[in-house]
Amino acid sequence: MTTDNRPKTFTEYNLKVSLSEKIVTRDKVYSILSKAIFRGDLKPGQRLVESKLAKLMKVSRTPIREAVIELVQKGLAVPSPPKGVKVAPLPTKEELTEFYDINSVLRGLAARKAASDITPQEIRKLQEIILQSEQSLKEDFLKNISKLNVKFHQIIEKSSNSKELVFLLDNVYRRSSERFSEILSRKKRQKESIEEHKVILEALIRKDGKQAEQLMRKHIENGKEDLLQQIEFRDNNREKE
Questions:
Q1: Model-level pTM greater than 0.90?
Q2: Options 2.60.120.260, 3.90.1280.10, 1.20.120.530, 3.30.1360.70; which CATH number does 93-240 get?
Q3: 8-87 — its CATH code?
Q4: Which of 25, 67, 99, 179 could staple 75 via S-S, CB 3.0–4.6 A?
Q5: Phi/psi at 8 (5° precision)
Q6: What is the pLDDT of residues 101-117, one digit of tens each?
């Protein structure tokens, strides 16, 4: 008997995903579902039925359930009473632009304030995050870079010694389209982002608050432009289908 090693493609739910390996982890299932949501293969309002998804992917319901919970936590899915879960509406370009503009101002302010108060220990943590990010980039571990990116910004925000600013940024983050960072971040953009982190860190080491703020705001603006370009590319592809 021969073994069929060809990639499997799931067509139900319109999941256009080819798999050449077994799906056994929550992270793998989450990656598939989140990308399908962004591409529009899973439509806003469409119910996510654990049993059906588990059957399609030939896995137990546990990683499906865990992945769906993560989708809800990150805003990609919402509860659908009485017991279900459905795909959440995607934010509009206008909503994304507004979020990034607010984020730019707040994070720029955090960088400026952090420049005068950041400690040597916090500097070392930022340097270590950059090194880990570069290593993850070499290994194509892009999801880890997204996590390290969050840590990088959180350290700077904490270094601002402004509880109110940290609270505002945390609130903006939780309500925002940052939940799409894993889906949208391309390797090219992540490489650029790491280089931008380096120059922001250099400004912090020099305790140049004005420069740190300018560099941080430019960093956020670059992320916004990359995101909007990818959304436009996605929408254009949908029109051709």
A1: no
A2: 1.20.120.530
A3: 1.10.10.10
A4: 179
A5: -95, 140
A6: 999 999 999 999 999 99
Cβ-based burial of 210 (10 A; exposed 0-12, middle 13-18, buried ≥19): exposed
Neighbour-count burial for 14-45, b at 16+ CB within 10 Å, e otherwise: ebebeeeeebeebebbbbbbbbbbbbbbbeee
What ranges do the domains of the chain cover? 8-87, 93-240
Structure tokens at 196: 């931008």
